[in-house]
């Protein structure tokens, strides 16, 4: 079950990033939507481990009647919370390997539903030796936290880093704002593949500036996250290093 589901997710995700079909609900962009839902799922996953420990009688308190349904329903809710994330990852952004972080995130992402399928099967069949279920549950928890850590935690700490880093030069802003995670630009030694290759696009200063301010598609708006000077600096950097005026 693990292999079947993980492979299916990987094969479905084996495509270049698509340009349309993203949604953001009331988040600022699709990337923050993914991070928000993944964080909610991670929080519920912590409750899963806690309630499972209680169900197994490993906590000092008596097991209340509501703990089984609470475990079941929080697990279902966690699953639902992963769906908007999986939709964007599998069907829109696709499997990527532009950096070690992205590769690890993609691989773990494929494993989430594999681990989920394995765990649910083991619960339902009820015919495995006792330690199998906690191991499967623990594996699912570890995979989910790994996915969350390599994406949401990275995103939240990066945004804070860019704003407070006092990045001044365009190259610094480019490096600390995560532009390289989505764009290839030789001058910055980045090879992201979510957005267009900036070396090939040759954007003008005004083009970069307005795009960084407004965002678009899956690209977040950096207005309010970067100062006016930082936006000008990164626009000058990108437009001057790709050979257009
Ligand atoms: C989450 C991924 C992501 C991040 C982060 C990101 N971009 Fe983008 N960027 C995109 C995508 C996707 C597009 C294409 C959007 C579209 O299809 O309209 C794009 C488009 C662009 C364009 C092309 C504009 C045009 O007129 O065609 C420029 C220039 C650009 N980004 C620069 C940047 C810079 C500079 C940063 C960092 C401050 C950055 N991007 C951060 C995903 C990203």
How does this structure look, described?
There is one protein chain. Helix content is 66%, strand content 2%. It has ten helices and two strands; from the N terminus they run αααααααββααα. A hairpin with a 4-residue loop joins strand 1 and strand 2 (190-191). Helix 1 runs antiparallel to helix 4 and helix 2 (30-55) packs antiparallel against helix 3. The chain starts with a helix and ends with a helix. The chain binds heme C (HEC). Heme C (HEC) binds next to helix 7, helix 9 and helix 10.
Terminal Cα separation, in Å?
A: 55 Å
Count of the domains: 2
Morphology: elongated
In quaternary terms, these chains amount to single chain
Count of individual beta strands: 2
Task: Tell me the strand percentage band.
Answer: under 5%
The assigned structural class equals mainly alpha
The SSE order reads: HHHHHHHEEHHH
Report the bound ligands by name, code or SMILES.
heme C
Poorly predicted sequence stretches spanning 5 or more consecutive residues: none
Largest sheet: 2 strands, antiparallel
> How many individual helices?
10
Alpha carbon gyration radius? 21 Å
Determine the mean pLDDT.
89
Spatial strand arrangement across the major sheet: 1-2
What fraction, in percent, of the residue positions are helical? 55-70%
